[in-house]
Design a protein that fits this description.
Elements (H helix, E strand, L loop, with lengths): L1 H21 L3 E5 L4 E4 L4 E3 L4 E5 L6 E5 L3 E6 L3
Length: about 80
């Protein structure tokens, strides 16, 4: 029984590390010269034209108009 529990726990921990390793920080460069570092990949809403992202500095979810984004680049973590 303990061996089964240990195996299950180790598989769950490995899965969490794998998923956490997949999300990488990105930078959004705006048309007015600002650089925003995001936690994970920003999401584009085609209906509204807004880009949603989690701000890496504050941890808050924020939005910006797609027209104000000059470029999006992945950071090397």
């Amino acid at each position: 029984m303990q061996k089964h529990l240990l195996t299950t726990t180790m598989l769950a921990a490995a899965s969490l590390l794998f998923v956490a390793g997949c999300s990488s920080n990105q930078t959004l460069k705006t048309t007015d010269g600002k650089t925003i570092v995001t936690d994970g990949k920003p999401r584009l809403d085609d209906d509204t034209g807004l880009v949603s992202y989690e701000n890496a500095e504050t941890g808050r979810t924020e939005q910006i108009n797609r027209d104000q984004v000059k470029s999006m680049n992945e950071l090397d973590n």
